[in-house]
Amino acid sequence: MEMLNVPPDPEADFEEVDVQPEQSIALFAPAADYGSSFQLEGYSKPSTGMVENGTSTSAVVTSSKPDFSTLKGEIHLDNLTVKELQETFKATFGRETSVKDKQWLKRRILMGLTNSCDFSTTTLVIKDNGVVKKGKEEICNNVEHNISMDPEVGSTSENCENSPTFHDIRKENHSNATGMESQNYLVVDNYGSENTNTEQRATKRARKPTKRYIEELSEGESRDSCSKLISSVGHRAYSQPSTNMHATPGQKVGLDGRWLVRRDSLGGSGVQVPYVSRIRRSRPRENFMTLMPVTSSDKLYSERKVELEKELKNLNSYEYSDDDVVTMPAANGRLRRKHHRPWTLSEVVKLVEGVAKYGAGRWSEIKRLAFASYSYRTSVDLKDKWRNLLRASFAQLPAEKGMQSSRKHASIPIPAPILLRVRELAEMQAQVPAGDTGSDRNSAHK
DNA sequence: CTTAGGG
DNA sequence: CCCTAAG
């Protein structure tokens, strides 16, 4: 999605624009990135705290908006001269560059300061259209060394083989055309796309964080960054991109988190966690904006906004039109939807009978045969309810006083006889472990 | 699509 | 009741 969401052309430039002949290597930052960033603050005037995190990045990106410039220590790459950019580059990568393309320099520096799991390539010498290595062992050693400092990064051998160098060289061969005209596009978008691409190769073997993790992390952090931004404290290290939607509603960045991808490392593991929006969980509509070709960015953004508003409206109307859907405040303050359909006694009885007949675990079967008329009960619901019944029965029966506590898991007070029956079934089925065809149980139970 | 389990 | 990894 991220790929689709960004303008077609500018985005491809991760390979195309970025990988310019002379410096395909520079993509990758010094190994201990955070470390070096911090050091930078010490001796490198231009790069002081500049862009080691998303907030700063968006600050740079949205430099047309003065709001960010108030952040102490922030430097807008946009405002730097070529020479200054070159100095920053040097401070960042530990080597000189003769590139005069500001856009290119800016992007490199952004990447350099934001990547956290890449390796130093300073042992490489860049020359004309090629990359000359000082020696393979040397590089690998270097990589190894870096890895040893970061136990979470993937295998050494892979990193040597899949060194960014080779990828980049390869890429630059097949596409270089679209290049420059895209330069005026949002850096953030480029940033995002690069992340996506880089992620694929750099962390190929790392386990992908779950969608949920990503979303929740994103949410938490965007909240974070908002507050941090407002208070404007000096903690750049943890603030995140996609901030001030409030300050600048028409802002290109972040009305919809889906076209932002930030590059964070997951608990220092080097796994990259994209920044996503959690607005909608259902399937996207077919002709959703994100699939539209981009012609004019102004048009794009306004339409996006409209679309977003629609989306929100749908969401709301849905929640309020459906009797069974209520929003409940969750512990963390967010709203959570809940379909609450209290189990009726007859349903419980049906369930218990179903279990008796077909056996616990055959939820879909029970649902199909005994709950045909209760479309809202899914097999998962049955399973959940059974679990709760078990808990209730074992917790409550020994002493009839447990009544109150047992309701914790049961929507309705379950009559003791039923609970007894539940328990009976549970014990019986525990003795005769499943694995046979339900028919046995069926007959066994009259 | 189901199941099983954690949240 | 929700979510999601496994199968």
Written overview of the protein:
The chain has 18 helices and 4 strands. Helix 13 crosses helix 14. The two termini are 56 Å apart. It folds into 3 domains: 258 residues, no CATH class; 49 residues, no CATH class; 100 residues, Serum Albumin, Chain A, Domain 1 (Orthogonal Bundle). It has 446 residues and is mainly α. It is found in: Nucleus. InterPro entries: Homeodomain-like_sf, Myb_dom, SANT/Myb. One of its GO terms (cellular component) is nucleus.
Describe the structure in brief.
This protein has 446 residues and is mostly helical. The protein is built from 18 helices and four strands. This is Telomere repeat-binding factor like.
Structural class: mainly alpha
Uncertain residue segments: 1-74, 116-208, 222-273, 276-297, 314-323, 330-335, 400-410, 434-446
In round numbers, the mean pLDDT is: 51
Sheet having the most strands: 2 strands, antiparallel
Number of domains: 3
Query: Total number of helical segments?
Result: 18
H/E series, N to C? HHHHHHEEHHHHHHEEHHHHHH
**C-alpha Rg, in Å?**
29 Å
Head-to-tail CA distance between termini: 56 Å
The shape is elongated
> How are the strands of the largest sheet arranged?
1-2
The strand count comes to 4
Provide the helix percentage: 40-55%
Strand content: under 5%
